[in-house]
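Predict the holo structure. Ligand: zinc ion.
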Amino acid sequence: MLKVTILGSGGAIPRTCRELVSALIEVDRYRILIDPSEGVTRRLEAIGVSALRLTHVMVTHLHADHVNGLPGLLATMLMLSRVTPLTIIGPVGISDLVPASVNSSFKVNLIELKPTDKVTLIDAADNVELRYVTTRHTIQNNSYLVTLKRPVGRFNPVKARELGVPVAYWRRIQMGETVKLPDGRVIEPSMIMDDIGAKSLSVAYTGDTAPSGSLVDLARGSTILIHDSSYLPSDVNEARSRGHSTCVDAALDAREAGVGLLVLTHISYRYGCEYHWDFLKCAASIFPRTLVASDGLVISV
Ligand SMILES: [Zn+2]
Ligand SMILES: [Zn+2]
């Protein structure tokens, strides 16, 4: 399963109805926070996720609206006596935002990514893969792709019972894991799941970006694309000068990349929440499988 929770959907300045942009991606054993914006620790707490449970923090770029919550998040981890390692991934300069003092409590695996226009593997462990590419913004912005490589299918409880597989093992098998039972039998997912295939689940997260061919390469075929949609088309000139996308840009990228679902986010402060439908109509007329992010939105696939 891959689960995305939108923690914030606003750009640059928070509004009552939109906190600053951020998302939590839960996949396999990974809990990845993307863009630790101001107040993100409190928002994690509001959805019942302790800062101690995060495995990764990924920062798209170093503009304040994407990264100002990082010091507070790390301080909270220190206060809670975190001991498990944390991986922090970001653009060049991210290391300056991580105080050396955190290493006295827990190990920080810091990955500082150089700009690249080629989709590049950051990390591949277990069945999860992380990739990135640098896209077009006013400073280095990394767009990320998180992929669950496990085969997916439909769990068939009748088959599980016929084979005498204890319920305690069902979830692991559902997640694509091959398990060994106490009686020594090895059960592979293909023995229990129907319509199993090699299909991956993936989520691409753009950060702040103007339309970019490298972004389409990254997102190609992804299950979910969470895309900068700062502006309506009437403000396209401002979008271009500030290195952002409009709802039209996001929809065209989604269509070209052939994604399963487009989620518009980083809605500019200037648009109150009454503009929700304007953004939806704008993008859905080009790419029908579109949602406009709202804070607290959860998508599970
Ligand atoms: Zn921003
Ligand atoms: Zn920015």
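The chain has a mean pLDDT of 93. Residues 153-195 form one domain.
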